[in-house]
Amino acid sequence: MHSGVHQTIAAVWRIESARIVAAVLRLVRDIGVAEELAQDALVAALEHWPTRGVPDKPGAWLMTTARRGALDHLRHRRMAAARHEDIALDLQAQEALIVPDFVDALDAARQDELGDDLLRLIFTACHPVLSPESRVALTLRLLGGLSTHEVARAFLVPEATIAQRIVRARRSLGEAGVPFELPRSVALGERLGSVLEVVYLVFNEGYTATGGSDWMRPALCDEALRLGRMLAELAPQQAEVHGLTALMEIQASRTKARTDDQGRPVLLSEQDRTRWDWLLIRRGLAALARAEALGEDAGPYQLQAAIAACHARAERTESTDWARIAALYGRLARVAPSPVVELNRAVAVAMHQGPAAGLAMVDALRDEKALQQYQWLPGVRGDLLARLGRRAEAAAEFERAAALAGNAREKALLQERAQVLRGDG
Hints:
mainly alpha
């Protein structure tokens, strides 16, 4: 009977929850308490909206309810506390609560204030004091509006594990005395890297799942894109924010073409490019242009976005500017050196100069410790060997790659390549 209202509440919550938590956190200065008060507002909506109807401004209703809860919390804390310094802090917070009833739209100053609060929340949730796993869980919980169950399902781990990560994250932030504020100068750049790393980690897990039976988890890509777009609005002068957003927009544009009707992976060279989402591509190219217009030296996300743009601009694989891609990977290797970047550069060189040139580069990476369990080292080597006509060696490499793959769809793709080369498929 009330399913439509409940769907509306869920949609509004997904959009507004981060702003609500951020605004309340500025007042109560405790991330656990802020989240509880925001959840109380959600519960109130579930209780009242089905019978009273959805308010004209549902986000403002939730914000008002949460702020009133924060005011009650502060009053009780003031009554329980004997220290004058706590009373002074509470009085300052109450002054911040002297605002309209949120029946009308927020004015520009209040919108700016909420934007600042949201940016503080992002930097708090992605603080380097937390482990990468905890940053991801807390970010999706606070900024993605996902329940603990949804986060656990997205990453294929037990719900209790995610719950423990979130609890530990809150505790770690409290014990480390992490302030609810934006880092300054050099620290801002350092912390921004952590924020972007978390967002990209979420996107990558959605783009190519590390485990399970599905090759992609589009919902995670959608959440990462939402976070990236949010960051681009909140930090418009940061080139790498636009670079990451551009990269994700362009990569996400291929989603419909990356699997066939049975859900099996379709590699980039074999994709039907008419199925790419050209709206996302245009958005990605525009974000890349914004990053380049800021005039900074290109960082790793901007360079990866430029590589993705080369693919997006090519009507077919054969018309791709592989020379430019190889050069961009060379720049990326200098900015953010890693064996994976070198492996990708080898692929681009192979496409530009031929498989023998690429194979020489791949063979130079075979002893890299970081690539020993990486399925795409033997996967790339198998592809290059196949192009050189060395079918038996190529099949063995694809079998080795399949043994390393954690994703069921990816494993099946690699096994199929091996079977075809051996004449079994």
